[in-house]
Amino acid sequence: MILLRNADIMQVLDMPITIESLRAGYDDLRRGDAAYVPRIDLWSPTGGDDDDYYQSGSMSGVCRSYGVAAVRIKSAVLKWLDDGTVERFCREPGTHMGIILLFATRDGVPLGILQDGYLQHMRVGGAAGIGADLLARADADTVGMVGSGGMAETYLRALAEVRPLRSARVFSPTRDNREAFAARMSSELRIDVQAVDTPEQAVRNAAIVATATDATGPTFDADWVAPGAHVTCVTRRELGPPLLERSDRIVQLGVNSIPYGADVPDMEWRAGANAAYVTGQPEERARIPSGRADERGAYPTLLDVETGRAPGRTDESEITLFITTGTQGLQFASVAGRTFQLAVDAGLGQHFPTDWFLQDIRS
């Protein structure tokens, strides 16, 4: 068994490798050689602050190309803030917990434990890049970015991999953050990235619009989106009915969670419209936002478009929307599977005897 921390993973996983490994996973899925279990959450009162709730989430997948099964688990306390955002942390603000357990499908042996922070950002950004490659105009060269955190960085890196970007405009509420983002990404990608003072300045006339925030509601006005633009998001929470109505073509990455209304005893659909099991008394449960109706829609998937079962962009003036949620378990299997191979080749990680994780009692 090998423990790979974020610092290890950063040494071997870049955006081209991320996109390559995701494409391998989706090729497997198309052939019937991959599968994934959608996300299911578990909620419990913390017993402390009246404004918070404990949440764990899990998802899993198998990727035959890399011979692995992966289970991703995250554990957090959530607080819903007055500014419309949600704060997530483990133990204390600024500290987070998420791991990927990796197993060999050949013999069932546990291979690794990977921290999920950096890999999570990369796989989401990479998937957005694949969606843009499928749906954005071939000449799309400007990006309007809402958000300036880690996800926004990986989104812009991925978009730069699939389209000949020449400029981007970024807005986030904190001036220092957006200006630092603009300086950092201008230097890294060698394109003109400008920080702007409003989301409208970022979105108007952009060929690609990306929203990568922790907002719990829409982050921009649908009327600002130009004809022919491609829009992509991190979560459905960042979307609203006007954008869904204005979009000519909506495609989702895949199935994100158990579909709303499925006949599963005791299952609820809470924040982000994710299927969940909830503990707590009625007044405690009332703290957790319910998923909005516009977060529950089902649309053709990436594979539907790639296989011709559903159309992609058919006109240069169409507004396309790619909802970058779904197939997470497969993404973790494919990206973590490839990362594990590269890390082993590079001699990275902390090693533990595999026998520590095996037993002679049948479970």
Structure description:
The protein has two domains: 2-119 and 328-357, 2-Layer Sandwich (ornithine cyclodeaminase, domain 1), CATH 3.30.1780.10; 135-256 and 294-323, Rossmann fold (3-Layer(aba) Sandwich), CATH 3.40.50.720. It has ten helices and 17 strands. It has helices spanning 6-12, 15-31, 117-135, 150-162, 175-189, 199-203, 241-246, 282-285, 302-306, 328-346; strands at 2-4, 34-44, 52-63, 68-80, 86-89, 97-104, 110-115, 142-146, 167-171, 192-195, 208-211, 230-233, 249-252, 268-269, 275-278, 320-323, 350-351. Strands 1, 2, 3, 4, 5, 6, 7, 14, 15 and 17 form a ten-stranded mixed beta sheet that branches. The protein has a seven-stranded parallel beta sheet with strand order 10-9-8-11-12-16-13. Helix 2 (15-31) packs across helix 3 (117-135) and helix 2 (15-31) crosses helix 10 (328-346). The longest helix has 19 residues, at 117-135.
Task: Give a short synopsis of this structure.
The protein has 363 residues and is an alpha/beta fold. The chain has helices at residues 6-12, 15-31, 117-135, 150-162, 175-189, 199-203, 241-246, 282-285, 302-306, 328-346; strands spanning 2-4, 34-44, 52-63, 68-80, 86-89, 97-104, 110-115, 142-146, 167-171, 192-195, 208-211, 230-233, 249-252, 268-269, 275-278, 320-323, 350-351. It folds into two domains: 2-119 and 328-357, ornithine cyclodeaminase, domain 1, CATH 3.30.1780; 135-256 and 294-323, 3-Layer(aba) Sandwich (Rossmann fold), CATH 3.40.50.720.
